[in-house]
């Protein structure tokens, strides 16, 4: 470059700048300059300025030397515009934009009129110019105009299909422009061109095709929807990257960190994330340490990913050590664009970590981010300092009475920075004023505070495209402020807007994704619910305001959605609609074999079990999507799910004297410390007379209530729920959609203010979907056939650890040394004989005949009764278990159907887990009776009920499940079941049969205490 520069200077001295020789060599020099400095352009703004100014000067010289209608002039414009739009990251002034637009139009006009080019070359140049014209409009935010010119490029390519080196990157650029409106549309666009790009570039220019594939994967990541096609692109890109650059290359390391890890994280494949990180350490960095030690960017990204991994498995304390380690080793004082970004990321993550733990530490790291941003502005000029606003928010939100002077200082700094950079009408400036308004409100100046907040709020409200983020939205904050101002209806209006505008809160946004991602999506939704319920609880406690709008209540109380998805998925598997569905079912079967083979092998590869499980889950969701779209009849059955949660539908089915109580467990949110550990319960009541506002109330002492339920202290539970019991006085039938500890509570054993058990004058019906009211199935449906399993043989010397597969998958000796249940034999024989005498067909499997294999082979009866031991391994007990075990909640509960086998080669080991239950075909089974201890227990997930046996049997098709909510007495259970089946034999509904059986127990001289009869509840649809 030094030689070329001297030659250019020599020509300038000899012939002057207006000579053809100088113009030619100057252009060649700039071409070479671009090749050398372009990869580092983002690190060195000075080189960008020198280069773009050189190109601009060359355009003017070409106009003088060759004329402003010459092709040389047009070509100089092309080079100038192309490189300017690709390199220039700063704001574009109106004069610069108009000048560049004029030059582009001149080049287009010259190219159109010239006859010097062959047609293909001419239209290639035109395509390039229209693309650059679109880029210019994109840089000033005129997206629609940009797309208009991008469309012209596509029109040219259709008539002159020349695919030059820039075409793949143009398509990515077009997709990015579409993304501003619809990310899915941008992804579909890229997918549509993928076959063409593969055909044209796969052999001739693999780097272009590799880059295109990574762009597609990036779009999948932005849509939050990873499907089989995305995974295939990811794996293909992986292969190409290895072939192009090799495993021990910076390019492959960056690909692993930027794409493989991002995809696996999005899928929830935590073991795969661990595997990629471990492989980088074992097979790459140990072989070539310089890849990690000599590239600061790779170094920081790699250790940040370890932090994110440990965060994802709830080992935050371990994860933060990586951040601290990065902080300790961050000694590079040479600040450039990349090191700046990584430094800021480290301090931001540390700030977030301490946000709800230590305000001073959080503020300290926030200030360090600010110092970096101030330095960036000094270095690069155009940089806008956003950290003023972040510190202002931190100080205003962190405490009830902030340091007004300091908080106000940062509010003023933020407003001034945004005013200068973006103008008074920008959302940034309005946001800064919103924070200042909140400060004014909190420090007593409420009217001025609301006035300063209004422009931001109503600007977003009037923008139909505005989608408020869950948990952090401006509507949430404004609603909280309105609550404090006692303007409750207005507060609920803004709360409701969050759900109305947010696609992430719509149930069909989580169809087609893995169960892990579904849970993550719903966790975000429930976190939003908790924030709102916290405000509602505070106004209820402080002002006794006990109303909530019906629309908002339907959002706050909706739950059990994943259960409904699983139920419909199971139905889709058993009833494939199309040829494609049949293929997907076969793939699901293969997925399950893969997962089971890992799960039950003698030495399973624990690092891949959860990935295999996620793959199985993902295929099931793809089948459901296809099933819904191809089968209009079954699609219509999803109407309740699609409408999410409709109290109006419930009202239509209720009669006078009936009501529906909806219960949701939530955690209080504290702005300083985050979510509390103590649970609370909100309860809303719907009856025939309900209108647009519902009355509701709260169980305030959640820990005390839950302990009382678990202890079986009925008097204490009744006392804590007295406000609810009082509200139920006027109803004789109550439908209950429980949550949390209410799943383990039998309402019949509660006492009213007169010390009377509620069972004496009320009927309670437990449901977990709306269809439990709208389409109840409460008696056999043309299937008077009952099958009984019970009193299995147990070898008391056998322990659970003898099962090979359970040694590796289960965390410890969880289910061992079970004793026989002598009364279960009497229970089964009595019940079977009772039904048989009324014309039922019955089958009994007792003793050695009661085993897992036999149960799985039985055809679906009308009633399936299982009397044996049940188990549930709690979250605390699984702390040391394998990750594969912890990731599948359905492995944690089940039934013991005899001596545990030590056969590790199949599933029939007499431990029937809930995971296996889901594969049973119980479509014609109207009732499953689980006469086993704690069969109602399972893993509780926020808003999604119990992941255990009762859910698994429902997913398998059973319409009702009779389960025990606690340890039950063997003899008392035998008598209760005798009464129950006598009532069923009389033709009573299951609900009435159980209630009457428990009333009969209440009159029994030996077993009238609730501890003998309230252990069982019937859960409907």
Q: What are the defining features of this structure?
A:
single chain; 1021 residues; alpha/beta; six-stranded mixed sheet; elongated
**Widest β-sheet, arrangement of strands:** 1-4-3-2-5-6
Poorly predicted spans: 798-812
* pLDDT averaged over residues: 83
- Structural category is alpha/beta
CA distance, first residue to last residue: 77 Å
Largest sheet: 6 strands, mixed
Q: How many distinct helices?
A: 45
What is the overall shape?
A: elongated
What percentage of residues falls in helices of 4 or more residues? 55-70%
Q: Report Rg.
A: 34 Å
Instruction: Determine the strand fraction and express it as a percent band.
Output: 5-15%
Q: Give me the count of strands.
A: 17
Please give a structural write-up.
With 1021 residues, the chain is α/β, with parallel strands linked by helices. 60% of the residues lie in helices and 10% in strands. Helix 10 packs parallel to helix 12, helix 15 packs antiparallel against helix 16 and helix 16 runs antiparallel to helix 17. The radius of gyration is 34 Å and the shape is elongated.
Sum this structure up briefly.
With 1021 residues, this protein is of the alpha/beta class.
Secondary structure: elements and pairs:
Elements: H1 2-15, H2 20-37, H3 45-66, H4 71-87, H5 94-113, H6 119-139, H7 143-159, H8 167-179, H9 183-201, H10 206-223, H11 228-245, H12 250-267, H13 270-285, H14 290-293, H15 296-312, H16 316-329, H17 337-354, H18 359-380, H19 387-398, H20 404-422, H21 427-442, H22 446-461, H23 474-484, H24 488-501, H25 515-543, E1 547-549, H26 550-556, H27 561-574, H28 579-599, H29 606-630, H30 632-636, H31 639-642, H32 647-653, E2 658-670, E3 674-687, E4 693-699, H33 702-711, H34 714-720, H35 722-727, E5 733-737, E6 763-766, H36 771-774, E7 785-792, H37 804-809, H38 822-836, E8 841-847, H39 852-857, E9 863-867, E10 869-872, H40 883-887, E11 893-896, E12 911-913, H41 914-917, E13 927-931, E14 938-941, E15 945-948, H42 949-955, E16 961-964, H43 970-985, H44 990-1002, H45 1010-1013, E17 1016-1019
Parallel strand pairs: 2-5, 5-6, 7-8, 7-9, 9-13, 13-16
Antiparallel strand pairs: 1-4, 2-3, 3-4, 10-11, 11-12, 14-15, 16-17
């Amino acid at each position: 470059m030094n030689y070329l520069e001297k030659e250019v200077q020599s020509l300038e001295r000899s012939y002057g700048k207006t000579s053809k020789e100088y113009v030619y060599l100057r252009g060649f020099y700039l071409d070479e300059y671009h090749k050398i400095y372009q990869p580092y352009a983002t690190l060195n703004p000075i080189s960008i300025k020198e280069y773009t100014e050189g190109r601009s000067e060359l355009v003017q010289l070409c106009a003088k030397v060759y004329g402003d209608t010459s092709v040389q002039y047009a070509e100089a414009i092309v080079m100038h515009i192309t490189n300017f739009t690709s390199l220039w990251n700063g704001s574009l002034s109106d004069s610069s934009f108009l000048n560049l637009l004029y030059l582009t139009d001149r080049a287009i006009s010259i190219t159109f009129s010239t006859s010097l080019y062959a047609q293909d070359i001419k239209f290639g140049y035109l395509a390039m110019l229209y693309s650059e014209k679109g880029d210019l409009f994109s840089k000033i935010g005129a997206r629609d105009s940009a797309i208009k010119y991008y469309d012209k490029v596509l029109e040219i390519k259709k008539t002159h299909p020349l695919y030059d080196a820039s075409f793949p990157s143009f398509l990515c650029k077009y997709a990015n422009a579409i993304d501003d409106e619809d990310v899915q549309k941008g992804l579909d666009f890229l997918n549509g061109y993928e076959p063409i790009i593969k055909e044209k570039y796969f052999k001739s220019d693999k780097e272009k095709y590799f880059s295109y594939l990574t762009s597609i994967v990036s779009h999948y990541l932005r849509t939050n929807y990873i499907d089989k096609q995305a995974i295939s692109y990811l794996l293909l890109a992986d292969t190409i990257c290895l072939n192009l650059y090799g495993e021990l290359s910076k390019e492959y390391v960056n690909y692993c960190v930027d794409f493989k890890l991002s995809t696996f994280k999005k899928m929830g494949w935590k073991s795969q994330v661990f595997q990629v990180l471990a492989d980088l350490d074992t097979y790459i960095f140990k072989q070539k340490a310089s890849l990690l030690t000599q590239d600061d960017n790779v170094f920081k990204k790699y250790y940040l990913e370890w932090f994110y991994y440990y965060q994802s498995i709830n080992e935050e304390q371990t994860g933060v050590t990586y951040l601290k380690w990065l902080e300790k080793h961050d000694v590079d004082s040479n600040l450039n664009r990349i090191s700046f970004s990584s430094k800021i990321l480290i301090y931001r993550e540390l700030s977030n970590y301490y946000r709800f733990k230590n305000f001073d530490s959080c503020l300290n790291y926030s200030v360090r981010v600010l110092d970096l941003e101030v330095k960036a502005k000094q270095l690069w000029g155009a940089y806008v300092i956003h950290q003023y606003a972040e510190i202002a928010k931190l100080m205003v939100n962190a405490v009830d009475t902030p340091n007004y002077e300091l908080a106000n200082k940062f509010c003023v700094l933020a407003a001034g920075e945004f005013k200068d950079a973006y103008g008074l009408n920008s959302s940034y400036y309005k946001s800064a004023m919103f924070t200042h308004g909140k400060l004014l409100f909190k420090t007593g100046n409420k009217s001025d505070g609301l006035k300063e907040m209004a422009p931001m709020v109503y600007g977003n409200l009037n923008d139909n495209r505005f989608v408020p983020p869950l948990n952090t939205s401006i509507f949430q904050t404004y609603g909280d402020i309105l609550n404090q101002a006692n303007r409750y209806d207005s507060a609920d209006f803004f709360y409701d807007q969050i759900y109305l505008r947010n696609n992430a809160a719509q149930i069909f946004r989580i169809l087609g994704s893995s169960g892990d991602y579904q849970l993550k999506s719903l966790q975000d939704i429930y976190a939003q619910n908790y924030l709102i319920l916290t405000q509602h609880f505070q106004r209820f406690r402080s002002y006794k305001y006990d109303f909530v709008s019906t629309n908002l209540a339907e959002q706050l109380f909706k739950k059990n959605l994943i259960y409904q998805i699983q139920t419909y998925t199971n139905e889709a598997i058993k009833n494939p609609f199309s040829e494609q569905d049949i293929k997907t079912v076969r793939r699901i079967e293969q997925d399950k074999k893969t997962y089971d083979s890992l799960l039950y092998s003698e030495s399973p590869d624990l690092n891949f079990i959860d990935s295999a499980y996620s793959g199985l889950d993902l295929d099931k969701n793809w089948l459901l999507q296809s099933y819904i779209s191809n089968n209009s009849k079954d699609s219509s059955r999803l109407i309740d799910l699609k409408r999410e949660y409709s109290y109006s539908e419930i009202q239509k089915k209720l009669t006078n004297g009936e009501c529906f109580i909806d219960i949701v467990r939530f955690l209080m949110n504290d702005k300083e410390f985050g979510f509390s550990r103590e649970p609370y319960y909100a309860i809303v009541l719907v009856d025939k007379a309900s209108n647009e506002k519902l009355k509701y109330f709260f169980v305030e002492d959640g820990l005390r209530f839950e302990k009382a339920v678990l202890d079986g202290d009925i008097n204490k539970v009744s006392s804590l729920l007295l406000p609810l019991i009082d509200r139920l006085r006027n109803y004789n039938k109550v439908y209950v959609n429980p949550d949390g500890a209410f799943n383990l509570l039998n309402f019949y054993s509660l006492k009213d203010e007169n010390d009377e058990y509620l069972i004496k004058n009320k009927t309670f019906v437990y449901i977990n979907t709306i269809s439990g009211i709208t389409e109840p199935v409460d008696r056999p449906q043309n299937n008077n056939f009952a099958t009984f399993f019970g009193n299995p043989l147990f070898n008391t010397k056998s322990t659970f650890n003898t099962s090979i597969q359970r040694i590796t998958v289960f965390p410890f000796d969880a289910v061992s040394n079970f004793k026989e249940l002598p009364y279960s034999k009497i229970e089964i024989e009595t019940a079977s004989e009772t039904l048989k005498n009324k014309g039922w067909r019955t089958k009994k499997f007792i003793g050695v005949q009661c085993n897992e294999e036999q149960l799985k082979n039985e055809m679906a009866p009308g009633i399936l009764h299982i009397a044996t031991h049940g188990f549930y391994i709690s979250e605390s007990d699984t702390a040391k278990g394998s990750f594969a075990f912890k990731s599948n909640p359905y492995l944690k509960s089940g039934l013991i159907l005899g001596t545990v086998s030590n056969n590790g080669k199949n599933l029939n080991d007499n431990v029937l887990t809930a995971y296996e239950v889901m594969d049973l075909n119980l479509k014609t089974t109207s009732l499953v009776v689980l006469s086993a201890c704690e069969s109602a227990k399972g893993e509780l997930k926020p808003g999604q009920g119990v992941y255990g046996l009762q859910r698994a049997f429902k997913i398998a098709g059973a319409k009702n499940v009779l389960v025990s909510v606690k340890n039950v007495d063997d003899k008392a259970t035998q008598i209760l079941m005798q009464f129950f089946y006598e009532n069923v034999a009389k033709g009573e509904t299951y609900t009435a049969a159980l209630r009457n059986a428990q009333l009969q127990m209440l009159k029994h001289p030996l077993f009238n205490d609730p501890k003998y009869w309230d252990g069982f509840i019937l859960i409907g649809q």
